[in-house]
Amino acid sequence: MDVLLGLFLFCVLLNTGAALECEICSAMGSRTCTGRMKTCAAVEETCSNTLIEVSQDEQEFPVIIKGCASFHKLITNQYYFTIGGGKIFRMSGVYCVGEACKSALPELAPIQTKPNGKQCPACHSYTSTCPDEVVQCTGSQHYCFKSVSHSVIGYPDGLDVNILMKGCTTDALCDLLNLGKYLSLPGIGNHMAGECWPAKNTCQ
Asked: For the chain, what is the HEC assignment?
């Protein structure tokens, strides 16, 4: 369904002969943002709204990012992972064109709090190493993962950082990592690559 919609939007742009323009903005602590319009590059066929939310101790911290994107790099699945210290990451995206982008908001996976009897090493660091703790997986998190991502903090003129993460996750993120693909957030060049394996039972 996503592919068919993407092809439809692409054909509309071809038929009108118009250059694609997308709103470019990001905001921390909010699910909305506004910014300037930008003419997208030829390899960017659509606009994208990406929502990331970090939850800890019943507090939620959202980040919204809007920009130009390529269909083959879009975040459209619901990614959900736990990295220890009570931190839960959820991420999803939608693509859109024109006025629809102003109200298009990705739907995040629901937070699952019930332990499922599995555990993983977990950590979160802005360096190449970090001490592991053991995190209890919950709900449909049946896999452990390790990833290194390159991000720009403080878009658009922010600081380049590498982020190391380990923890529990679902099959959606594992499918991505095990295929050697990466996540790319619109406009800020966030790339995430790593590996995934089945989580061990707590009693093992």
From this structure: CHHHHHHHHHHHHHHHCCCCEEEEEEEECCCCCCCEEEECCCCCCEEEEEEEEEEECCEEEEEEEEEEECHHHCCCCCEEEECCCCCEEEEEEEEECCCHHHHCCCCCCCCCCCEEEEEEEEEEECCCCCCCEEEEEECCCCEEEEEEEEEEECCCCCEEEEEEEEEEECHHHHHHHHCCCCEEECCCCEEEEEEEEECEECCC
